[in-house]
Input
Amino acid sequence: MSLTRQSSFQNRSGDGKGALYLVATPIGNLEDMTFRAIRTLKECDIIAAEDTRQTRKLLTHFEISPQMLFSYHEHNKGASGPELIRYIIEGKNLALVSDAGLPAISDPGADLVKLAVEEGISVIPIPGANAALSSLIASGLPTDRFTFIGFLPRERKDVEETLQSFQSAQGTLLFYESPHRVIKTLTAIQSVLGNRKVVLARELTKRYEEFVRGDVQECLDYLQEHPPQGEYCVVVEGTSPEEEQERLAAWWQNLTIEEHVAHYEAQGIPRKEAMKKTAVDRGVSKRDIYNALI
Output
């Protein structure tokens, strides 16, 4: 990849291309909207939205009437992306919005940004509300280092492997989750990462905004009495330097992976389960152990 330089507002190349604006929208409260975001949406020729019905409500509220409102989402991005890029190359300014928060975060907008960069199009962020960072700063957990993971995979084995890959992460972990899956996700976190401190943040900036703080088991107990409602951000403490040092000084440190697995097999544990336990010990995915033994 060759070096490129973008000067968003000065010394534009004069090639006649428009720009791609990534516009943050409210995550709940309409007052999350910034003056700059409103002005940008009013000035852009095209607005591309994940759900045009939802975006029309927002545009109507702020009296914004775009020349074109374009549908762009996960299921049509293959066809819509190149078409939107063509409009920008022809000189149109395009604003991309998601249903809530920053576009291109757990969102197909990231693919549109990639296409724009490849075509030498200026990509300009219009900052605003973000659920993950809002949850983090109010969580009470460390904010100096963090990892945004977003939504976990659907399959249980993939969930476990993903969590195992962050077992040694010392920064706070940020997840998105639906009300239908949050209990399963907390159960998986407890199984793989242990009974860590966790914060459940839901309905951010809305009337029923709520933060539930405790360890994983306490939060699971709370959800048994208070059925999950609304979209959640799950904020999980990372491992401490002391815990990581303890893990690195573990009994298995001088064993090869094959010897590590064999240790568990000698206890009568089936090979598949022995590989899983080895992966948990070492803080890697089960796939990594399997590949090492091939």
